[in-house]
Hints:
CATH topology of the largest domain: VC0802-like
Strand content: 35-45%
Order of helices and strands: EHEEHEHEEHEH
CATH class of the largest domain: Alpha Beta
Number of helices: 5
Amino acid sequence: xxxxxxxxxxxxxxxxxxxxxxxxxxxxxxxxxxxxxxxxxxxxxxxxxxxxxxxxxxxxxxxxxxxxxxxxxxxxxxxxxxxxxxxxxxxxxxxxxxxxxxxxxxxxxxxxxxxxxxxxxxxxxxxxxxxxxxxxxxxxx
Length: 141
């Protein structure tokens, strides 16, 4: 139930993000979800894409540094308290949320949360034990 995520390390300069998106566009890679975090010098762009291999290849061809790791996607009710219900399911299980981001379409009844856990197997077991839908790669794509 893990989903590959590509992380791109960007110099914090005007035009760097646009360059990455053009590279992916030209490679016909669709961005499904993203998160961008920055420091004073560098940023980390985290992406869920429809073709991870094609994305890696296109970025490497442009000497853009990236890495792939696995994340967990969880379906949540698109309403107040949805995130709290997910975190309640994890509480007491000893799982740390390293980072997360979300995506939702405002008219949808469900949203998806993308998590990076320190112990994904335990997190998935706890979530499923509470009846929470852990989304597979095919469902998100």
